[in-house]
Amino acid sequence: MKTKYPIYLILLLLIVGSCITPITDFTQVASKSFLTVEASLSDQVGPQKVKLYASSDKLTGSYFLPITKAKVYFLDEKGVQEDLTESVTKGTYLTSSKFAGRVGGTYTLNIITIDGKKYQSQAETMKPVPEIENVISRFEIYDNYAKGDSRRGGFNIYVDFQDPKTEGDNYQWYWKHYERAFICETCVGGSYDFRANTCVQPRIPTDVTLNYRCDGDCWDITFSTDLNIFSDSYLNGQRITGKLVARVPYDGVSPYYLQFEQRGITRNAYNYYQGLNAQVQNNGTLFDVPAETRFSFNIKSTSNPSEKILGIFDVYSVRKKIFYIDRTQVPKDEAPNTKSIQGDIFACPPTQIGCKDVIQCSEGLFRTPLKPSGWKD
User: What's the start-to-end Cα distance of the chain, in Å?
Assistant: First the structure.
């Protein structure tokens, strides 16, 4: 089951307003305002993350405002509590860096806002996920798109794995791509102010585009563009072969680095993603999906049982593979949809003292100075 909007992008779009002044005393300021929870707990070493936001359609359109100073913690079936601490990013709460969920463990998410409102998830048990036995990439053409269309050519990724004999196993596939970044900032119609760390516009507008190089090692990050989920309802205990789990673009001929994950998700998470998937397919875009489709399957208010919550508490185990895709084995009449740098690359004049022309590669959602695991130069 696929759609062109993955859950991480869906949630990213939902929280795009996190730079707005945070709410410090949580109140629902509009009739369409909901507590929004983006919470995940995996068996990978932490930190695990929970994001809390309040939607406010009446005042800020699609923007979500972070909820600060909440008490957030996980509680397992043995009564062991893991407290989360709010990070420098308002509304984002993190566990300790060494904390990880345990396959077979059962967890609840607990939230207490600054004004005493209480929320709790259903108890979710982390299920095991089978190993990825085989990964195959194959160049395939979608000839309903014309040549030159980026959607025409791409590499489909297929996996094989053995589904356990236990009933009710649900899966999600997710990937992340890294590639070398040489440009760390592009200023359209202006130049970069190294004191303010931002592009600035001159008094007299220009049509010049200036690109600024990175100051060292840097990688751009892109994510999967599919929400790909699967249930073993009709194939329980069978060996799954040739399951299409991803499609990556044909935008160059260099080897394509991929961090790939096979996740074992809960039934509640599967149902939540399936609802989003169906609504996007029916309506065309995320913005046409009604809010009630995103109401949580497993988070409730214990202070006000009638209150509606957006989001999901996602508990899952992971199996990972890192590999490179050979993008040279394609038909001769198919050309890559290559990306090109627009504008000029800025360089300091040799005689200008104190001039800067490179920008620090900063850690973020779409860029990192840290070499990816398994990277080959």
Answer: 35
